[in-house]
Amino acid sequence: MSKKAMTKTIGVYLLLVLLIGEVALLFTPVQPPSLPPGPAWRRAVPELGAASLVPADVAAFSSVRRLGPRLQRIWRSNAVQSLVRLPVAQDVWGEVQADGTYRGMMSTIRNDPRLAQIFTVLGDAVSHEVFWCAGRDLPEFFHAWSEVNGAVQFLQLASLTSDDYEDPDRKVMASLIDTVLKNKERLRVPSFLLGFKLTDKKAAQESLDTWLPKLAEVPIGTFDSRTIGGDRFYVYELSGEDIPRRALAALGEAPEVAAEQAEDLVAWIRSQRLTLALGIRGDYLIFSVGRDTSLLARWGAGPSLAESEAFEPLRRHYRRGLLDVSYVSAEMAAASEITGEDVRQTLTALGAAVPDSWRLKRRLARDLDLLAKDIEEEIPKPVSTLAFSFENRGIETYSFRPVSPPVHVDYSRPLSILAHRGRRPAVCAAYRPARRGTETYDKAVKWLTVAFGYFQDLALPEFDPSALQNYRKVMEIATPFLRAADRATREDLIPAVDGCQTMLVLDGGGKLTHLDDGTALPAAVPLPRVGAAVGLNDPVRFQRAFERYAAAARKLIADLRREFPDILPPWLEIPTPETRPAAGGTLYSYRWPWNLGQDVFPCALLTERVLLLSSSAAQAKEMAEPVPMPAPSVIDPSRAAGGVFIVDCTKCWDAFGRLADAGFKLAQPGLSPEKLEFAGKVKLHVDAVLRSLEAIRGYRSVTTRQGEHIVTHSWLHVEDIAE
């Protein structure tokens, strides 16, 4: 990439910041939020804005509040302004402002009162609250659409597996139409509302009255103004009856469409209806989409979502500074997530797609039914989810969902394994699974055995006598190994780790100072180090399990070589790991072919209660030494929890900065003066971007169980940088 192209590339990203900032400053009115007097729980419902007006039975809802002030604060922050002051940003912005097209566009906007009013209204509309919600008909639409899609996939699969499947395109189309007609009452345009809170309703109404009447002469459909719920809306309606009859007649004459289906299909299309409505109701500019305007008519009438049981956590936690709210009903979750019923239907369809002539079809159908039952038991039932955020030195978020069995996480105790995260982790994630004994392992063994049974019944009869004889010899050798491994797993490994905590750690504390041949680098190159920690119930059993695995594997290799001398490569062995005392435990490693220092040295460190795995011996030793639990700061990772996730962004930016410094120093010797000067400018901009990113300090989340809810409490820590 040329210097000029690179400069423009950098400038494009900074230009985006400039444009967002200018739009926010030009068209965003700033008004401090005001709260009515009284206890928080009393004012919570009206202060929830659109949630206090949408019907309680909506399938989904999302609201973003105070977007205008938030954008202005970001634009005016030292972090963004330091990027704006960069030479490349100033140069690109100067070029844009000097461009005739840009100047003409801005002049037109400022000098045409009607256009200026539109941008003012848009700025007002997106500044205070933007929401959308979906009616209760959306889950039904999703279910119907999923059934239609599944029918098509089933027919396509059947066309591949059947020997006498004639005219697949016609049969796929016939099945598709049958499924559509079967679901015709659910395959309707679902209802949506998109709304914007206004402070200047008069200006918004004037803009609507200026521009929307121009749509009255639409060539298809009808456009008019009508009263809905006591307020005036502009409404556009398009019906299937508006589609020219010749177009529908052509559909019925298509060779893929059966004659007996054409009439019903045309009738269904003619019954379809799309209604769009735009107007102002209360303090909101609302755009409605659906078959009709029934969801819009129910706005502000009857029980609201904010008063519903699903919103009880928000009413309880409500405080000043609410930023975002999102809600998904259990019905919507069932329609949009993979459920046990989805798995069952898919496996049933898979079995049905097998030709009737296949001799194992009945057995396969039975096994697929049992497999679906086992998988269903592992998938939690769909539940509603409510999430909301507050301003708190960044963004503090709560997410609530009802407990849905099965629960495979243990929330009863603190995650003490966090004490082994090391001295300088950039990222760490920990969780504790619930104790399950051999339940999961038993299911895995059962289904591997079932699959192996199909291999024996289907593949072995196709083997020639020589291959069959060799297969039987291999199985005679492998069977004792499999039994030994199974016993080691059941007797030692599972009891040693069942229900134990696990943690993943990433830090930037590694460094590469020399090459494999010992040549010193001009500058130490920062290296990421990846580590993992696993709590142990019984270290002796854990160690014994792997000793038994190794012994069984060595015997397997020896027996295979004795019976089949050329079947395995000569280098395949199970070596004994090198061991040495370290950090109060035993460090296990294999001879590493490269000499790159302690930070490029995969190993395992086994202590009294923890197994540590790392790409770096130095990191493993650091993780072995317990450190204090993370200090509470909005989020308390030391509380009883099932999962904790922590990102220290300051360490990430520091690591990137050190990497940029090292790259610049390593590149210097081979650069000409001109390229060195350009590299210095690039380095200046990289440093400026990293300096701005320091405003993002970190992220924490902790997942706990509170009564009948699983709660994830998270915090994105953001504080502006110093000037």
Descriptive account of the structure:
Among the domains are: 407-434 and 500-534 and 592-723, no CATH class; 436-498 and 537-574. The chain has 23 helices and 20 strands. The protein has a 20-stranded antiparallel β-sheet, with helices on both faces.
Q: What's the quick description here?
A:
It is built from 23 helices and 20 strands. Among the domains are: 407-434 and 500-534 and 592-723, no CATH class; 436-498 and 537-574.
Please report which band the strand proportion falls in: under 5%, 5-15%, 15-25%, 25-35%, 35-45% or over 45%. Answer: 15-25%
Gap from first CA to last CA: 33 Å
Total count of helical runs of at least 4 residues: 23
SS-derived structural category: alpha+beta
> Could you tell me the mean pLDDT?
86
Count the E strands. Answer: 20
**Assembly state of the chains shown:** single chain
> What does the main sheet amount to?
20 strands, antiparallel
Shape: globular
Q: Specify the helix fraction band.
A: 40-55%
**What is the rounded Rg?**
33 Å
Give start-end ranges of low-pLDDT stretches: 1-43
Describe the structure using short key phrases.
723 residues, disordered N terminus, 21% strand, globular, alpha+beta
Topology at a glance:
Blueprint: H1 3-27, H2 40-47, E1 60-65, H3 67-76, H4 78-84, H5 87-98, H6 100-111, H7 113-128, E2 129-134, H8 137-161, H9 168-182, E3 192-197, H10 201-211, E4 222-228, E5 231-239, H11 245-252, H12 259-271, E6 273-281, E7 284-290, H13 294-297, H14 312-317, E8 322-328, H15 330-336, H16 340-352, H17 361-378, E9 385-391, E10 394-402, E11 427-431, H18 439-458, H19 465-497, E12 502-514, E13 520-535, H20 539-563, E14 578-582, E15 585-589, E16 603-606, E17 610-614, H21 617-624, E18 643-648, H22 649-667, H23 673-693, E19 696-706, E20 709-718
Antiparallel strand pairs: 1-2, 1-8, 2-3, 3-7, 4-5, 5-6, 6-7, 8-9, 9-10, 10-20, 11-12, 11-18, 12-13, 13-17, 14-15, 15-16, 16-17, 18-19, 19-20
Helix pairs in contact: 1-3, 1-5, 1-7, 4-23, 6-7, 7-10, 8-9, 8-15, 8-16, 9-12, 11-12, 16-17, 19-20, 22-23
